[in-house]
Amino acid sequence: MLKEARIRSVIYTRVSSVKQVENESLDLQLRECKNFIASKNGEVVQIFEDAGESAKTTDRPGLLKMLEF
Asked: Is 38 among the domain residues?
């Protein structure tokens, strides 16, 4: 029997304020992403994060690392 291929996925989470970091918004995003990927029989291969970074610019360390990945 052939094994079903797992979809390899990366997760990127971001919040723009320290208050959101303190309120565990990143943890919630990560948990929701992991649950979604698991529901699709996916595999998380890397997690990227930007805490306290505005979405007004694409010059965000975590985003840039993800794009290089």
From this structure: yes
pLDDT per residue rounded down to tens, the chain (69 residues): 667 788 999 999 999 988 888 888 999 999 999 999 999 999 999 999 999 888 898 999 999 999 999
Say what the pTM is.
Answer: 0.86
> Which structural domain range is residue 42 located in?
7-68
Distance CA 45, CA 2 (A): 22
**How many domains does the structure of the chain reveal?**
1
